[in-house]
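Ops channel
N.P.: pipeline sanity check, posting one input/output pair.
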């Protein structure tokens, strides 16, 4: 289905409805031409007239091989997807009556997650009648956020969603020191 969407995104040859188009590219004299003349130029080169920017006035077109053009667009999208940063969200679960030792253990894990660059979603799960201790859960999450203040910042304050009270923390941007020069490395 994605392949069809990319092909349907651009009009080619007879699908272009504008009276005149602006031609750009390496293999043509750039300028404004009637659509008929632009199509004829494309046919003379055994290529396709592709509408690149339909919203411009007049629409911008290129004369290229359509299959090659689609291939390049897919390749460009793949590169963009590969370069995008993927953010992981790690979850940490508490109970409203969480003990100090368990809290410290989970705090240590949260510090590691934030140091690695992952987001942390901490939540207090209320079972049965423990929902009566909402204040305890909120205090626990605020204490958790306060203890992690040097590692991350609060993205979402504690909020109750069903039987869970959730807080989301995102890592602080790490400021990397500049690399040591050879002279500084020799001194150490």
């Amino acid at each position: 289905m994605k392949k069809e969407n990319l092909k349907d995104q651009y009009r080619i040859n007879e699908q272009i409805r504008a009276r005149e188009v602006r031609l750009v590219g390496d293999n043509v004299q750039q300028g404004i031409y009637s659509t008929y003349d632009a199509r004829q130029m494309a046919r003379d080169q055994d290529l396709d007239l592709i509408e690149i920017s339909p919203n411009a006035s007049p629409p911008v077109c290129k004369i290229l091989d359509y299959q090659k053009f689609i291939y390049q667009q897919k390749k460009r999208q793949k590169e963009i997807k590969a370069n995008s940063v993927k953010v992981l969200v790690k979850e940490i679960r508490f109970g409203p009556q969480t003990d100090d030792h368990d809290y410290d253990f989970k705090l240590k894990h949260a510090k590691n997650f934030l140091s690695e660059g992952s987001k942390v979603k901490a939540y207090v799960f209320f079972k049965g009648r423990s929902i009566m201790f909402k204040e305890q859960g909120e205090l626990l999450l605020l204490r958790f956020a306060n203890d992690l203040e040097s590692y991350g910042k609060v993205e979402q304050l504690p909020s109750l969603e069903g039987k869970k009270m959730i807080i989301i923390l995102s890592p602080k941007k790490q400021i990397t020191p500049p690399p040591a020069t050879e002279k500084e490395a020799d001194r150490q």
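N.P.: looks fine end to end. The chain has two domains: 2-72, 89-171.
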